[in-house]
Structures are given as structure tokens and as C-alpha cells.
């Protein structure tokens, strides 16, 4: 950090650990209660672990997510494309590039915003930005879910089954694929609408444009 003249921010829980280690007084943190402007203070994020760490990092930011460089230390590494052994070289390339005109390639990944309503009213604090998918399912209920699906206030279908997955292209290789959905390149601006064990065998997954506004209603 001193060579690159950088400010290092970590999560509050991690900062408590660093505070007890001599020589790490330079590490700073942020208040977890207010992260609305965190994306304006952070230039890039370094993740150590598996795909779950990247999903966790995405959830920290309420606004736009800064560029993320991920080093694989976990068992699942679809999103962690950098080996940890190369972290010094890769971080320097992110900061400086190979020369003054060069940099690094990044992949833009969309997120979905989900807002929960009950009895027609928005529930306070129930707005989520998700990188992988949104799932509406029957939970522990032994009966079929009945879900009405609207796109811009127009009824498009009624789903009877275990539930529905609405996935991003990033999430298309996760739960959605296991439920029979397609795999989509992360640069394709779309969302995937995938039923979970539908009662009707003719109900197939659908790919919608990223401009679609979906409403899932449980009567």
C-alpha cells in the first residue's frame, strides 16, 4: 500500500482483526450502517476466496459496484479468474497497466433490483440489488406455488410449480442452469425467467430484455 500510495479499506469485522496485529495500523474501514456513498470512495475491490465472496462484495454496495479483481482461494471459481500466486503482478497491472496507454480488460455484469411489496405497499428496507438471481419458491409448503407473472403490468403467464427463478447472465450458470435454463454470456443484456419444476411440461425458460420490469404476484 505504501509503494502505491493507496488507502486500504476492509469490512468492519475484518478491521477488528487487523487492529490487533502490529504493523497493520494503516488499514481503514467504513461504517456498515451507511454504505450509500461507498462506491464513490472505492476505486476497485480485491476479493480473496470463491464465487461466494464476490457475491458478498456485490451486496455491500448499494450504488454502482466498482471494478472487482478476484483471486481464487475457494472451491468454486467461475468468477474468480486470477490465481492467488499472481496477486502482486495482477494488482500492479490493475493500478498502472502495462504502460501509460494500456490497462486491463473488464467484464461488465448487470444486477437486478428487487423490491418486495405486501398488500400493495412497499416494505421498508426490502430493496435488494442481486448479482446472480432472485428466487420465489414454495419454501417448506408441500403444495404447488401459484405465481402470476406480469411484465410492465401485462399478465404474461401463471406459473404452477415449485417456484420461479429470475436470473442475470452471471447467474445463468448457477441455479437457473440446474433448473433447465440456458447459459448466457455476461455481455448479453438480458434476464432469464426460469420455472422450477413446473406442473406443465410445455412451460419452458424464457430470455427477456434487461429493460423488462417483472412483477411476481402470489394470489
UniProtKB/TrEMBL annotation:
Coiled coil: none annotated. GO terms for biological process: NAD+ metabolic process; NADP+ biosynthetic process. It comes from the Eukaryota. Gene3D superfamilies: Probable inorganic polyphosphate/atp-NAD kinase, domain 1, Probable inorganic polyphosphate/atp-NAD kinase, domain 2. GO terms for molecular function: NAD+ kinase activity. SUPFAM superfamilies: NAD kinase/diacylglycerol kinase-like (SSF111331). It holds the Pfam family NAD_kinase. Keywords: Kinase, NAD, NADP, Transferase. Belongs to the NAD kinase family. This is NAD kinase. It comes from Nicotiana benthamiana. The lineage of its organism: Eukaryota, Viridiplantae, Streptophyta, Embryophyta, Tracheophyta. The gene is NbNADK2.
Amino acid at each position: 500500500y505504501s509503494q502505491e500510495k493507496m488507502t486500504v479499506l476492509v469490512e468492519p469485522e475484518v478491521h477488528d482483526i487487523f487492529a490487533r496485529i502490529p504493523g497493520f495500523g494503516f488499514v481503514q474501514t467504513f461504517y456498515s450502517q451507511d454504505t450509500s456513498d461507498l462506491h464513490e470512495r472505492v476505486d476497485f475491490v480485491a476479493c480473496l476466496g470463491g464465487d461466494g465472496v464476490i457475491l458478498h462484495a456485490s451486496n455491500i454496495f448499494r450504488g454502482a459496484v466498482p471494478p472487482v479483481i478476484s483471486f481464487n482461494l475457494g472451491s468454486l471459481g467461475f468468477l474468480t479468474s486470477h490465481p492467488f500466486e499472481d496477486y502482486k503482478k495482477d494488482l500492479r497491472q490493475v493500478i498502472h497497466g502495462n504502460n501509460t496507454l494500456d490497462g486491463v480488460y473488464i467484464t461488465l455484469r448487470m444486477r437486478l433490483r428487487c423490491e418486495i411489496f405486501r398488500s400493495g405497499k412497499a416494505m421498508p428496507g426490502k430493496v435488494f440489488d442481486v448479482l446472480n438471481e432472485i428466487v420465489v419458491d414454495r419454501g417448506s409448503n408441500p403444495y404447488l406455488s401459484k405465481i402470476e407473472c406480469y411484465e410492465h403490468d401485462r399478465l404474461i403467464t401463471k406459473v404452477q410449480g415449485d417456484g420461479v427463478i429470475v436470473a442475470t447472465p452471471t447467474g445463468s450458470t448457477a441455479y437457473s442452469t440446474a433448473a433447465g435454463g440456458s447459459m448466457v454470456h455476461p455481455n448479453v443484456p438480458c434476464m432469464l425467467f426460469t420455472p422450477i419444476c413446473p406442473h406443465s411440461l410445455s412451460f419452458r425458460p424464457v430470455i427477456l430484455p434487461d429493460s423488462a420490469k417483472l412483477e411476481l404476484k402470489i394470489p
